[in-house]
Amino acid sequence: MGLTPAEPAPVTVTGRCQGCGACLLTCPHHAIRPHGLALRIRAELCTGCLECVEVCPVDAIDVATGR
Ligand code: SF4
Ligand code: SF4
């Protein structure tokens, strides 16, 4: 048995991110983690609640389509 392919996360952090950290503090599931100088959404933890999208001051978090 191989590894299960990673599910795409319901949200993605785009290059518009200013690194303010508001989304990290807001996410109730701690699904947003620093990854080098960028942020990564951990798909296995993200529930798609979209609280991060609402709190981001620069609309840097996109909601994936087709879900
Ligand atoms: S959608 Fe909700 S669970 Fe997913 S990263 Fe944003 S705040 Fe966290
Ligand atoms: S709230 Fe928006 S600008 Fe701030 S760290 Fe998160 S994605 Fe980046």
From TrEMBL:
It comes from the Bacteria. Its cofactor is [4Fe-4S] cluster. Pfam families: Fer4_7. Residues 8-36, 37-66 form the 4Fe-4S ferredoxin-type domain. GO terms for molecular function: 4 iron, 4 sulfur cluster binding; metal ion binding. InterPro entries: 4Fe4S_Fe-S-bd, 4Fe4S_Fe_S_CS, PSI_iron-sulfur_center. Keywords: 4Fe-4S, Iron, Iron-sulfur, Metal-binding. This is 4Fe-4S ferredoxin iron-sulfur binding domain protein. It comes from Thermomonospora curvata (strain ATCC 19995 / DSM 43183 / JCM 3096 / KCTC 9072 / NBRC 15933 / NCIMB 10081 / Henssen B9).
